[in-house]
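Example complex used in Figure S2.
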Amino acid sequence: MATTAVGHAPTGYAPHGHAPKTGLWSWITTVDHKRIGILYGATAFLFFLIGGLEALLVRIQLMRPDNTFLSPETYNQMFTMHGTTMIFLAVMPLSATFFNFFIPILIGARDVAFPRLNAFSYWVFLLGGLFLMASIPLGLMPDQGWFGYANLTSNQYSPGLNVEFWNLGLQILGISSLAAAVNFFTTVINMRAPGMKMLRMPIFVWMSFITQVLLLLSFPVITVALIMLMFDRLFGTHFFVPASGGDPLMWQHLFWIFGHPEVYILILPSFGIISEILPVFSRKPLFGYAAMVFSGIFIAFLGFGVWSHHMFATGMGPIADTFFALGTMLIAIPTGVKIFNWIGTMAGGSLQFKTPLYFAIGFVAMFIIGGLSGVMHAVAPHDLQQTDTYFVVAHFHYVLFGGSIFALTAGAYYWWPKMFGRMLDEGLGKVHFWLMLVSFNLTFFPMHLVGLLGMPRRTYTYPAGLGFEIYNQMETIGALLLGLSQLIFLYNMIKTWRKPADAPADPWNGATLEWAIPSPPQEWNFNEIPVVHSRDPLWEAKRERGGPLPEPAKVSGAGIHLPNPSFWPLMAAIGVTAIFTALLLIEKFHAVGIIVAVAFFLFSVFKWAFEPAG
Amino acid sequence: MPFETPTLRRLARVGGLACLLALVVALAGCSPDQYPQSALHPRGDFARMVDGLFHQVLFWATVVFVLVEGALIYVIFRYRGKPDDPEPEQTHGNTTLEIVWTMVPAIILAMIAVPTVKAIFVENSVPTNNPLTVQVIGHQWWWEFRYPEYGITTANELHIPVGRTVSLRMGTSDVVHSFWTPQLAGKRDVFPNRETRLWFTAEAPGYYRGQCAEFCGIQHAKMAFHIVADSPEQFDAYVKSMQATGTLTATGAPRPAPAPAGTPVKLQGGAVVKTGLGGPTPTPAGPAPQAAPAAPADTTKPAAPTDPVLVAGNKLFLSKGCVGCHALTAVNVPAGMVGPNLAHIGTRRHIAAGMIENTDANLAHWIRVPQEVKKGVLMPNLGLTEQEAQQLVAYFRALAKQ
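Predicted assembly (1016 residues):
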């Protein structure tokens, strides 16, 4: 592993080098964090496009009052799937793309702490996503909202398998997230290169690390809630059934104790990406590094104490309302610190207007708006007018699309040459940016207004005469253009794919370790484990040398210890999915299905455990 | 690229700001008639209080928006660099500056927090100024309103007197809903196993639209209602006319000698329930727990209706199953009736839970094919002919005139 590998620089004495691996089998059995990262990215982008299509169907339905483009059932399925897809199958795994590919490199490691567990996380994510998507051809898409409020989810009010697809699908995805969180947490704690002290880690690693802590603490809560719901639905318990003494309100608390940290799980990695990009394109270190780290920790900590601001309308009483209102307002302070520090990073710099910087600035500009509407929600008495209206839809799209998606796109343009050895097209990138910025605002800004004018969320239609029409038309046109902007991005990727892989190792004058190694990196990342002396190790090296570093040569990598490929992670992931499929079909196969699936899972784990790791 | 010019970019950003300010202010200035469900056009004390709070927050948000986006734009233009520019000064931070921009937001937030907390306590208070208590019960997908003080029940159209505080005590017969009339008050969820409360006072007579705001199943979008704020005199008249529906017989026919106005007359509510034609049997049967003391009623011999419209409509109402779920009287309606109360349905301005104008054609269509109008509602398509539906409409209209 990384630290023990120091001093094992390639000397040529080993019997063989590492030939580049190709072919489908090499991808199925890969345990290379970079390949797993690319798998995450490709899968998540596909799900992102599916989630976007779902959103477009929703928007077309709402373009006119009393529209009949979608039936009420289909509409409810579409908004449920849109939310579920975007959160669990798009934004989270798109962040995971960068965790996988860059956390080990940024801390000077050769892989994650548990490479096979990493492969397992990916396969479980893929199969969990497919499990959810299987509901589409079956016409059994979840239709109770991504938040699945009890007691609408009880057998009495939602008799179909729709809720099972959602409940069991989220449980599968939760396993993937938890396994990945354990892995990255351990990687960051244990695998840092010599000299990479915690307070020298790149901010992206810091924010990702905090994200793993949030995952580890919040996913067990939703898992427990989902299992309780599963027991209610499949085995006749009454956790959320009021007629038998259960409490639907308890679901809301459990859901949001997970759900609010989840918001920061979605945005903190993006904070990290922006904090990497702005310094590089300002040619100046991050302003207030320590403040950035501690404000991230503070946000995460407070994030566990504000869940009930999603529930002001439940009538919790003045003390609880006050607590959650003030807690929510407090979060604005560390968030403000971050925004000011980003602007401070650019101030006094020499801004290089490349596509990643466009998206990063777009992120800051949009996130400010999302942050301000967030403070408005904290004003609990007026939140009673905002909650469950389009005002809230506007708010969280400003932080999740204007925030996360802008940042993840910035990250894609920034790190693409490192991941694939090819630079994305700058001209197309800027067209992509401007179209996305304008259409994003056209789509989501009017939602503030139509929400305040009284349009509730999750309604498949609205009558004429409430003054909603013009705003909905603007939103739908904006959404279609927003979809087009993503197609431009897709076209850019395809166009770039056809170019020769000739990107230099350090195209942006980067500050961090990933730019010291070839583009794309070789399987072992570093020929020699680097020794780190500062927060911007590459800038330091270039300054010492008085100019750019020489292009790193590709070497054979002979003698470098690498983990063996394995297909048991995939088998174990199939086992996990089989268990939940058996639960889905419990009416048909009863306990037999579960026993078979568990046996297969245990067999795979057994084979995994006794397979030589390399 | 042409759209990269600084001027355009500045315009775009300034445009965003103009949107935020101008639109909200402009919208608030527009006629409320254009926006009958708007939180920006308060017509009740609760809504006005939170709207005032919103304007304070909006003011500060606008200030912060202008300053921060302004700083961002300034920095973008001021520090635009070229690839061969010398390396800028490598600063790592500025403690004073960082303390300042931590403290300033904290102070602004404190200024928002104080009125927020005050309003939280006002909003959560229990009204003591002789409020009119109304029991609100959410149903998939309509609203039931009961007035314990007057012993009457209605659905989807809540009449209240202007100037008298209304105290809502709310629950649901099935899943979680949320009661929301933006012009009068914020929303409050309703639960099957706990009572939630909400109060407000209408400032002006009006017809205020509200709607369920918590996703509650397939027809969540069509679970609206209206609050009719009447002058005190109009409200008294409304209550009396609703109480007068207690003089209907179980079969919906008027009694020959109505009881004195204002005296609720006990109807054979049980008769409505026991008939149970074509619909699920509601439980529990029996008088509403909050029923006002009812005068002894003459339940002996209902006179046969003579008006042919009433006769025909009454026959259909009994034979086609309507009576199994709906009551035509507002008085002493048992709790747990499956369908919305139909007392004075003929005079309501909207039907199908606030969704459709109450025209003869709409009402007939709704009665005939409810599953087409609002798929998933409990009421099945009963197989009524066009003519039968029209007869029922005529019947409801005639009853409303009684």
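The first helix of chain A runs from residue 2 to 5. Chain A has 18 helices and no strands.
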